[in-house]
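Problem statement: downstream parser choked on a complex file, so we are re-checking the raw output for the uridine-diphosphate-N-acetylglucosamine run. The parser issue turned out to be on our end (a line-ending mismatch), but while we're here, posting the original submission so the record is complete.
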Amino acid sequence: MQIDPANIWDKEALPSQGSNDMNANPKASAPDKIKVIGGNPLHGTIPISGAKNCALKLMCASLLTEGDMHFENSPNSLRDMKSQTELLEYLGCKITARGSSMTINAGGVNELTAPYDIVRKMRGSILVLGPLLARFGEARVSLPGGCAIGTRPVDMHIKALEEMGAEIVLDEGYINARAPQGGLQGAKILFPKVSVGATENLLMAATLAKGTTILANAAREPEIIDLGECLIKMGAKIEGLGTDTIRIEGVSSLNGANHSVVPDRIETGTYMVAAAMTGGSVRLQNARLEHLSAAVGHLAQTGVELDQDGQDIIISRETGLRLQGIDIMTEPHPGFPTDLQAQFMAMLAMCEGAGMVTETIFENRFMHVPELNRMGANITVHGHSAIVRGVSKLKGAEVMATDLRASVALVLAGLVAEGETTINRIYHLERGYEDIVGKLGGCGANIRKA
Ligand code: UD1
């Protein structure tokens, strides 16, 4: 049966907001709560990890070669990295991870099906599709899961691969893809909408295709540039990274390479907001200010001071200064990132005056609003926009983490709330924040797992 890929996701296929067991905690006895007592200003240094949203794709790029891929600054302790490791090992890759190093060898890949049980845990796993198809000529990948932040189709990935000559049939929840005889063909692909994942999948697929591929209306995120730079080290021919038109000249094979993962700009932005909200002064080590220009511009408008010292960012707020409300609209990079929207909303909740937050990337990304309101925030949602009227004090409460970035917004609110905040279901946080309790606790926050 042919299924319309634009309508693959229906609400039943997604976990409901109240029962998101997609990433259910496998260790029932492990701590599943974070308790924060608000009021401490942050002072100290926070090391920034490698970007999850890049490392997951670099792991997929390893499927394009028989050679060894060696990664440094890899956020290996994240739950999403463990899910991706499980998937690649299932396909036949040999992986060793130590500290923040990871080595992957895909010379022994003997399985071309990415099964539902692994893929459902994380949307980033759809990124094995392009590399498998390009190197082996076929792939069978379950339709992905991920955060419950709206219907997230993969129609653009599929249509673009079809434009490269692939034959794709959707059946029983799987994408069954086969390259034409002789391999994928270069093509001129115009994405109807900017998509990070579709750009990355096609970028990887095109490295081993016959002839030239042009990706127009491509995404420009720093993670895509980093992925492209790693592919170039592997022998790929790519021009135009960081612009909306990427040109790839296919080559017959790629080699292994060494690569250091770009710092996580979303983790950086999250801790910037933490420092802004609590006051004090925090040095963010090994961050890249230039990857956060939209967020930094908005932070400066609220009254926060930012300095750059080599690869570090120092963020401070004068004691006693009340931050000012601002308006925010999420956009594809270099606009304001949707992955920082919830954190900025937590900050606006305690600013002076009102601010409006408009979400243009995902349609269901305000799930943190009712939880923030439980903590005394005054936020009203109207369609894709939320009006945040600043209050002088947030109050500790028991709240529920619903997705990765929503969860961290609740931790931020807890850092300034009066009394104790208990955040349930912290496995969401463990998908994307390495040692958040240690990093914030090391700067004086009263935070612990329970
Ligand atoms: C990636 C990031 C995610 C971030 C998002 C936007 C990873 C693992 N995740 O997600 O954290 O929030 O970029 O910056 O890197 N869309 C379609 N059809 C498609 C593909 C996407 O309609 O085939 C839509 C999506 O539903 C969404 C928009 O395009 O509305 C952007 O999504 P996309 O950029 O693809 O996000 P992801 O790559 O899934």
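For whoever reads this later: The chain has 14 helices and 24 strands.
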